[in-house]
Amino acid sequence: MRRTKGEGPSLAGDSPSGVNELPGRLDRYSKAKSQAVHTASYFQTVKDGKHEDDVHRRLYVCGCYLVFKHYLEQGSVRLASANFCKVHLLCPFCAIRRGAKALQAYSQRYAAIQSAVGSEGHLTPFMVTLTVKDGPDLLERFNKLHRSFQDLNKQRHGKGSGHSTWTNAKGGVASFEVKRGEGSGLWHPHLHAIVLCHPDKPMDAYRLSAEWLKITGDSFIVDIRPIKEKEGEGVIGGFMEVFKYAVKFSSMNSIDVVDCWRLLQGQRMLSSFGLFYGVQVPEGLADEQLSGEYMEMLYRYHYSEQSYQRYPSRSEGVILKNDPRDLRLSRKDLRLSRKDLRKDLRLSRKSVEKCSPGVAHGVALTAT
């Protein structure tokens, strides 16, 4: 299986924005959906059992339609509905949406923290990266990283030997990521964390490296750098680095992506402590909706063209009010009848091979 070239879709620009930014957002979603199709094409050949059959089906149709609301008074366009599979370790589209929701939740907590300590002086955010030695066993390496980070956090409460520089961290949130090591080709789990410290009591990189080596027994490479605020953005760039998706879809082939999901499903990929502890990330992946008048915009994914195209809905051109009874799109509106869904999603053998070289069999979908 070939690797997908490019950096792939990111969290940048995925927050609710105006109608002029919508084409860029749809382009990012198209790339993510195309990557999901690559993975689904391979997964079709190796899926095992009822559970994986269900996951494969959900992955393949995930994001085949998107419904946006254009709020006229606010000038904001928000994703209101989509058929999310919510398998973020397999699906780049759901990974983007999950990362965007986490980014929003923790950014709000960060703003609240800085506001609360304003009279004492703001806390300084640092980007901290911790790694463990590359290895052939992904689950063993991931568990090693997870346990080591837990041991490091225990030292904040004096449970380790001696005074730890990690006690200077007043709060933090970490995201676990996995990819293949560039030089070794082995599994390379690592974590990125946003850590808050008082300006006059930052963490010492040399001491942290020594402490991390003592905990892991084989790893001493750590990276600590302050996150500088940019005009108009604040610290959002540093936060995006933490909350981007846990699997490097752009640099991994479909075989590795499926293996990651099989081994790591159910694992905690986010960990928080101190002032960041207890943040609730919404389960829903759609944008938060506004009140007021809006217009609906329906987009469907074209598998042959690997892009989204706009389709009319029953409310096309009609101004609606944001009412819970609105947006109950019928099967007719979405053109997702059993017959139409089969017709639209059925790929020829030639199309499948074009999307994912090396896959010998086509993808058969049954609408549910």
What is the fold's blueprint, element by element?
Layout: H1 22-46, H2 49-61, E1 65-71, E2 76-82, H3 92-116, E3 124-131, H4 138-154, E4 171-177, E5 190-197, H5 205-216, E6 222-226, H6 236-243, H7 254-264, E7 270-274, E8 293-302, E9 307-311, E10 320-321, H8 331-334, H9 338-345, H10 349-355
Antiparallel strand pairs: 1-2, 1-8, 3-5, 3-6, 4-5, 4-7, 8-9, 8-10
Helix pairs in contact: 1-2, 1-7, 3-6, 4-5
What's this entry about, in short?
The protein has 368 residues and is α+β, with helices and mostly antiparallel strands.
What does this structure look like?
It is flat and about 65 Å long. It folds into two domains: 19-94 and 286-355, no CATH class; 124-274, 2-Layer Sandwich (Alpha-Beta Plaits). Helix 1 (22-46) runs antiparallel to helix 2 (49-61) and helix 3 (92-116) packs across helix 6. It has 368 residues and is of the alpha+beta class. It is built from ten helices and ten strands. Strands 1, 2, 8, 9 and 10 form a five-stranded antiparallel β-sheet that branches.
Mind telling me the C-alpha Rg? 22 Å
Query: Average pLDDT value?
Result: 81
Instruction: Please give the CATH architecture of the largest domain.
Output: 2-Layer Sandwich
CATH superfamily membership of the largest domain: Ribosomal protein S6/Translation elongation factor EF1B
Shape: flat
Instruction: Profile the largest sheet.
Output: 5 strands, antiparallel
Contiguous uncertain segments of 5+ residues: 1-9, 324-331, 333-341, 347-368
CATH class of the largest domain: Alpha Beta
The SSE order reads HHEEHEHEEHEHHEEEEHHH
Tell me what portion of residues adopts beta-strand conformation. 15-25%
Total number of domains: 2
**Structural class by secondary-structure content:** alpha+beta
The share of residues in helices is 25-40%
CATH fold field value of the largest domain = Alpha-Beta Plaits
Head-to-tail CA distance between termini: 29 Å
The number of distinct helices, counting runs of at least 4 residues, comes to 10
Query: What is the number of beta strands?
Result: 10
